[in-house]
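Worked Example 4.2. Read the sequence first, then its structure tokens.
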Amino acid sequence: MNLIRLFIKQPVTVGVGVILILLAGLISLKRIPIQLTPNVEDTIVTVSTFWEGASPEEVELEIIDKQEERLIGIPSLREITSSANQSSGSIRLEFAQGTLKSEALREVNIKLREVSDYPENVDEPVISASDRQHRDYIAWIMFFTSDPDFDVRTLRDFALDRIEPILERVQGVSEINVLGGREREAQIQFDPIRLAQYKITPRDFVQKIRESNRNVSAGALQDGKLNVRLRTMGQFKSLKQVEETIIAHSEGGPIYIRDVADVVMSFKEASGFVRAKGVPVIAMNAQREVGSNVIEVMKGLKAAINQLNAPGGALDEKARELGLQGKLYLNQSYDQTGYIEDALVLVRNNIWIGGILATLVLILFLRSLRSVGIIAMAIPISVIGAVVVMVSMGRSINVISLAGMAFAVGMVVDNAIVVLENIFRHREMGKSRRQAASDGATEVWG
């Protein structure tokens, strides 16, 4: 191996190269992502559709089946699964390895546009490049109040508008999900006796409200060289507009909603709940961006929580605005980094203990500090140099990669002993140090 002879002839160059590798490795340790497991990035797209009040059978028949008919023909689609629940349905599309997410999203969006005959009141399908079935959340955060007479679940809108955006702005956080709580809604509580007096059936009453609460395209109007698009804006924006809606006409004049019903702002009936420490709460979970350093992300997330909980923060202001006897606060109930740090410390300790024990055994058997020093130097140089390669290849430090390094320490020691013993054998044959190093390493370089 001419390369080995070249290294032997250039000891200063080799020494400088080793120093550069060590410096690059120390710099890489600050930049390499740290997480629990390696990234196994599959191209998965989820389509979610919401239909208020629909049963799972209706969702499957009117939404899921129609969407699947169009989506099944997408190129590179490997697997498609769907689920229908009360008021919502979702389709999970898994694409072949190597399919670009941008391409998959574009194909799904094009196919969904071909589905036009959705039932009334069905929301626009939401397309996301994420797997809602297999998510890895790095933190769970609970929204509490210390006022026993106040129901914190009524602050779901506040959590969505004020808390979620602050947490999502943390560097490395991709998504914050708010669970639990009660959504606000305008309720029209009609009086069946008054409806009967005006000879209006509940079906006609509901139908009239649906017809009035819509934005409708009114076509185009030619204005000289301009083609003006017209649109009738009829969606309700306030309770007053709802009350002033005409639902029928009688001899005495128009009949308004206020004549037969009370319009109030209330909360939806809860379909699920979240409890912590024995009381109902609002829960939030955090998902990190792929490739981000989970340790750094968690530091930023905790800083944002402390900012919200601080005196004069958003939660303190909201508590004073509501006149609460206690306070509002966030409590982090789960932190993935705790387990990650324990696992990483365990593997790092194994590397150190294994290296030290190997060095002690070598001292005991070789009884040569120079030989042991050569082998001991190979361990940190190899490990730190491996970190440089990992960063350049876009890898991360995780339990698997650290376990590999722990095994590699033993291989480095074994290989170093083989090379050193072969060089020693050539020295006993009367060769010079350089010649023995060249011949001995060349014979066992593999």
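Now turn to a second chain, presented in exactly the same format:
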Amino acid sequence: KNLGNQANVNFQSLGKSASGKEIFGLQIGEDKNPAIAILAGIDGKYIHGADLALRLAEALAKEKEVLKTASFYIIPVVSPDAYLGYFSKIKKRNPLNHTSFDNDRDGRMNEDPFEDLNKDGVITMMRVEDETGHYKMLDKYESVMVKAKVEEGEKGTHRLLTEGLDNDQDGVWNEDGEGGVNINHNFPYQFPSFKSASGNYAASETETRDLLDFLFDQWNIHTTISFGPANSLMHPWKHNAAKAKQRIVSSIQEADEKVYQQISKIYKEKISQKEAPKVSSSGGDFNQWAYFHYGRFSYSTPAWWVPKIELDTAAKAPKPDLDNETVRFIEWAKKENIANAFIPWENFTHPDFPNHKVEIGGVNTMLSTVPPYDKMDEIEKEHLEFVTAVANMLPQIHLKNIKTEKMGSGLTRLSLEVYNAGLLPTGTEIGQRTRWVRKPKVELLLNANQQCISGRPIQVLKIIKGDESVHLTWLIQGNGSIKVKAGSAICGFDEQQISLK
């Protein structure tokens, strides 16, 4: 509502989710400016991303200086079905939309959902005593289960399963419940065919297609930032020469790596949280698609993760292993007095395991990826500083050092510099291969009495790096004035009216 009163904000509907929920987007700023796309709610486990995206939208709409040269496209909830699942009666991490999908591909749908067996309102885990299992209790911290390291002489003592029943008796628990596709596994780049929750084919979901259609129409998008599981801002992608030359490219290009390092450095300076866990992008995810197929600089961050904590060194009790993410979360939640972060293990008589000890409990995963709400003001402040810093670095094309020389016989030599006043290049190296990024173009607009004798009246330039320029020269016959126009949607335009000698 606050944004609706802003003259520089435009709301629009991108489409609807599988259940018919509207997917909204907004544009802040003008089409003529290079843009940053900010997306959240692609993966339903990170609901704070939607809140952060809306907070950034409200703040950026007031950044009048930034909006003179940059614009923003903000889509706070790409997958509304998955987002709303967080608020369901029975709490469970469920990043799926409402497409009916046969996840286990047995010809039936939704026949093996999660069940809240202990009636505590949260779907957690089951640990089943079984020497054929691959999990064991963590030394000195028996409430946490870890995979046994066979190579180090360890043996498993338990099976670890999600809470529920094996309704279809196929030996797998809760693999085919309500909902079907994780939108963050449904994008075309390295699409995980025949994998659970990925969809029947790439971009099979209306949410995915509507988002792709929208983005392909916005030629001025230079950079995308998504709030989700991967963290390419704290752990920037690295160039691999062999993978970068494959027919299906699976590494960023060498020149692009320098930009990723540059932006990562800024993120680390702006964000007070350090020691982020390294989470790689998965196949079919938005973050990789936006770079490898869409050809834009693409960054992802969860925006928050369980922070490092300092334990009481004077305490006599054995110190837990904080390198284990589950232990780190439990200890942090204790320190922050967060209730129900860990559900204590309790015995349960399970019909699927009549001769085994079964316990239900474990980490409340609804809380392990989402910050306490009182942290959001600081998260917003730091990410606003980061986003505005990147926006101020976007490429800006200007025509500089314009010079005309009279050559005789009605001829004028015209020379100038096409200068990128920004600190980021006018496009990605991968964009040269995908051919979906418009390169800077320089055009002489001649009248009927003028002729270009030497030099091309229309030229398409290669990437211009930040704070660099390209020198051009022409020989023009005629008199009067001539207009020169340069730029592209992704790096802005400049035009100059020049008098001939």
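Notes for the reader: The chain is about 20% helix and 25% strand. The mean pLDDT is 91.
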